[in-house]
């Protein structure tokens, strides 16, 4: 009964917001002579982790444009944010540019569609068997904004593999990674004690054979017993309420040095840490460039990832430039214990790798200029 009520309520709320948005868009276009951009957050569990930096990204554009945000989080109250179920987006008209940083399947009516990739590297996004499905979804967009040239080349390979089946032209741009620029500006004003290790996983549903989830309880227990550091476990945001995750939370809730981080903002968690342990999460490279601290890739999957043809991804090729590969819990413990001694060498290689980005600290200007150029071409 409750589910029926929520579904009915969300449908009614969506329809009311659609009527209001259509009226607002016409008002701004006709009377205020403003241009309108629609940004959509399709995944309610991930929406709040993107809010701050996405809003700042569009800060320059707000002089000429009105930015309207759609989302699926019931109860969220922010200016220019409206609850809209994705399937109803086609009922929103007169939007020239639609943008998202998670892949959508539905869009505002006859809009030019821009996908800004939410990951900093060509991380393994999905099981290879489902890659065709992902590429087909990406082909619904007109433009892909990607964080670096390595990711551009990877996405082009994905898309070119289907060029004979789909004649649509999709334009791909290297635009930098604004979230990194945002975090670096923020950390420059922040000083704190580094007394923890972060364990951050990728979505446990993506590639189950490469997930660390089964190793986490024993790894946490080992690190709690054998180090003096706080152990912060940060699950993938969309997994926060999964049974496997909550079991880990409950297992260690009485340990003073254990912290379960299910916050929407990982900034404070990352700035207090000496290193990060992960499986195949894209957050590894964000952390490395943001903190200039090493990553420990706990690679229980090392023997199987070649079979999935992941070895060609730069995510795997560059792991030793940003950190260390560990095949066991014992090795992981050893690396954690010696992380201060290992820090300087990795800082140099991390900095060198970061310099391969074309738009470090320039991503906002790059993205702004591209959006304005796209808008201009639409009106020609």
Task: Name the features.
380 residues, alpha/beta, Rossmann fold, 2 domains, 7-stranded parallel β-sheet, 6-stranded parallel β-sheet, 13 strands, 42% helix
Would you spell out the secondary-structure blueprint of this structure?
Layout: H1 2-30, E1 35-40, H2 44-57, E2 65-71, E3 81-83, E4 97-100, E5 112-116, H3 131-138, E6 143-146, H4 149-160, E7 171-174, H5 178-187, E8 196-200, H6 216-226, E9 230-234, H7 243-252, E10 258-260, H8 267-271, E11 273-278, H9 283-291, E12 295-298, H10 314-317, H11 319-322, E13 323-326, H12 329-337, H13 339-354, H14 363-379
Helix pairs in contact: 5-9
Structural write-up:
By secondary structure, the chain is of the alpha/beta class. The chain has 14 helices and 13 strands. The radius of gyration is 22 Å and the shape is globular. The mean pLDDT is 91. Helix content is 42%, strand content 16%. It has helices at residues 2-30, 44-57, 131-138, 149-160, 178-187, 216-226, 243-252, 267-271, 283-291, 314-317, 319-322, 329-337, 339-354, 363-379, and strands at 35-40, 65-71, 81-83, 97-100, 112-116, 143-146, 171-174, 196-200, 230-234, 258-260, 273-278, 295-298, 323-326. The strands form 2 sheets. Strands 3-2-1-4-5-6-7 form a 7-stranded parallel beta sheet, sandwiched between helices. A 6-stranded parallel beta sheet has the order 10-9-8-11-12-13, with helices on both faces.
């Amino acid at each position: 009964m409750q589910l029926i009520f929520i579904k009915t309520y969300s449908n009614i709320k969506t329809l009311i917001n659609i009527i209001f948005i259509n009226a607002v868009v016409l008002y701004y276009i006709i009377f205020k002579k403003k241009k309108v951009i629609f940004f959509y957050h399709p995944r309610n569990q991930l929406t709040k982790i993107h809010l701050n930096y996405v809003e700042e990204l569009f800060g320059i554009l707000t002089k000429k444009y009105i930015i309207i945000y759609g989302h699926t989080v019931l109860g969220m109250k922010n200016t220019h944010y409206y609850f809209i179920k994705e399937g109803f987006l086609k009922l929103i008209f007169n939007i020239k540019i639609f943008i998202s940083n998670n892949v959508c399947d539905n869009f505002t009516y006859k809009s030019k569609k821009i996908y800004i990739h939410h990951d900093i590297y060509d991380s393994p996004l999905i099981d290879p068997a489902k890659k065709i499905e992902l590429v087909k979804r990406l082909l619904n967009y007109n433009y892909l904004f990607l964080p670096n040239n390595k990711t551009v080349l990877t996405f082009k390979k994905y898309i070119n593999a289907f060029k004979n089946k789909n004649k649509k032209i999709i334009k791909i741009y290297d635009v930098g990674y604004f979230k990194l620029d945002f975090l670096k500006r923020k950390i420059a004003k922040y000083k704190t004690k580094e007394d923890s290790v972060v364990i951050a996983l990728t979505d446990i549903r993506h590639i189950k054979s490469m997930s660390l989830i089964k190793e986490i309880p024993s790894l946490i227990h080992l690190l709690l017993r054998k180090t003096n550091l706080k152990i912060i476990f940060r699950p993938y945001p969309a997994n926060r309420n999964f049974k496997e995750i909550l079991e880990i939370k409950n297992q260690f809730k009485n340990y003073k040095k254990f912290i379960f981080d299910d916050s929407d903002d990982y900034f404070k968690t990352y700035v207090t840490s000496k290193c990060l342990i992960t499986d195949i999460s894209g957050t590894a490279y964000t952390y490395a460039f943001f903190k200039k601290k090493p990553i420990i890739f706990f690679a229980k999957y090392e023997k199987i990832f070649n079979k999935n043809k992941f070895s060609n991804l730069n995510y795997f090729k560059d792991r030793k430039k940003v950190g260390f590969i560990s095949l066991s819990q014992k090795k992981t413990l050893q690396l954690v214990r010696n992380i201060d001694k290992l820090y300087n060498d990795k800082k140099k290689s991390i900095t060198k790798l970061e310099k391969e980005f074309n738009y470090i600290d320039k991503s906002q200007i790059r993205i702004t200029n591209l959006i304005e150029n796209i808008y201009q071409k639409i009106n020609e």
